Amino acid sequence: MFTAYRQFVKFFKPNTSNKNRINKSFTQNHNFYYHYCFYKLFMKITCTRDNLKKGLFAVSRIVGSGNPLQVLNNILIKTDEGRVKLSSTNLEIGVNTWVGGKIEEEGAITVPARIINEYINNLPTEKVEIETTENNTLKLESENYHTSIKGLSSEDFPLIPQVTEEPLAKIDSQELKNALSETAWAAAANETQPEISGVFMAFENDRVRIATTDRYRLAERTATLLEPARSQKEVIIPARTVGELYKILGLGKGVVEIYFSESQVLFKFDDTELISRLIDGQYPDYRQIIPKEFKTMVEVPREDLLHALKATALFAPDSNNITIEVRPDSGLTVTASSMAAGENTTQVKAKVTGGDNSAVFNFRYLLDCLNNLSEEGVIFKMINDSSPAAIVPIKRDNYLYIVMPIKL
């Protein structure tokens, strides 16, 4: 019952009457269990609501609500070297974060993630007093709000492994966040091919090359490290891990340290750690499908092309197919038609170099790319109606998107 509190508790206090009372009880009743409970120190801390909200946001997203192993639905709350540590895991991903607080008594407990997260988010007041009581119960007080949450022993919480190596690389959080936003969504959704269901990272000198593919498209972004990597390394990180990392990176700005063991990766950012298993396998040599030359180059405002695709997509509700035609004298034209919806033709002003060209594409694949870029202008590159096309920003050379046309 008391495994939630691992620290040794001194039963004998300086007050002589306490000591005599305990010794007397041992002699008369031999009830050690009762007096351990009576004199046991329960965790008692005070935090601000905003600190708790930020910490709970970082750890609660990976927690489910219907896991048969009940402790996996919980968040671990414990004191740790003068701060409050929050932890969660789904046995594939683990998150630790530390928040500031006043520690009156040390201890630990696990409580349901959904309840504690939503409760703290709904508190109107700033100061929150937190205390554990008997039977693994967490008591919270915040002005007119008083609650008790049933929890589980911290001893039941799975151990989140640590990576003890030196960091392989360091990168600015915003640089990493931007790189992930331009690539992660192109990973394969079907995990029957685990290698391409993850995000590929290749650390090379002072850069990391990030790539994703589902065999119909490819997104590649090269990000700059703050200093050269300690060694070259290629890994595949689960897409869900990258998604959680992206959310955590949105909590602030700073330096991200990246650590690796043989089978795990650890991202350390600010006061938060995210650790995950790596996907075992060899990532496809995707560079061999990237064309060396293109027949037609189209410089076009990104927003104009985006609006044209969205309008035309309304007339391709079933097939997702739209046709893109480019001519040096008339720019770029997007068309689609269906028996049920009708037809649409949208012309976009563009600078076309090379010959005429035309191909059919899945409009969703084009929208995914354009929605996640921020540039004013892009270059749309084509070869023919059966070869890969490409989209790159006009003003930078660290991003490439390859998309296959549809053969009708």
TrEMBL record:
GO terms for biological process: DNA strand elongation involved in DNA replication. Residues 287-406 form the DNA polymerase III beta sliding clamp C-terminal domain. It is found in: Cytoplasm. SMART domains: POL3Bc (SM00480). Transmembrane segments: none annotated. The keyword Transferase applies. Belongs to the beta sliding clamp family. Residues 43-161 form the DNA polymerase III beta sliding clamp N-terminal domain. Keywords: Cytoplasm, DNA replication, DNA-binding, DNA-directed DNA polymerase, Nucleotidyltransferase, Transferase. GO terms for molecular function: 3'-5' exonuclease activity; DNA binding; DNA-directed DNA polymerase activity. CDD domains: beta_clamp. Residues 171-285 form the DNA polymerase III beta sliding clamp central domain. Its main location: cytoplasm. It comes from Candidatus Doudnabacteria bacterium RIFCSPHIGHO2_12_FULL_48_16. PANTHER family: BETA SLIDING CLAMP (PTHR30478:SF0), DNA POLYMERASE III SUBUNIT BETA (PTHR30478). GO terms for cellular component: cytoplasm; DNA polymerase III complex. This is Beta sliding clamp.
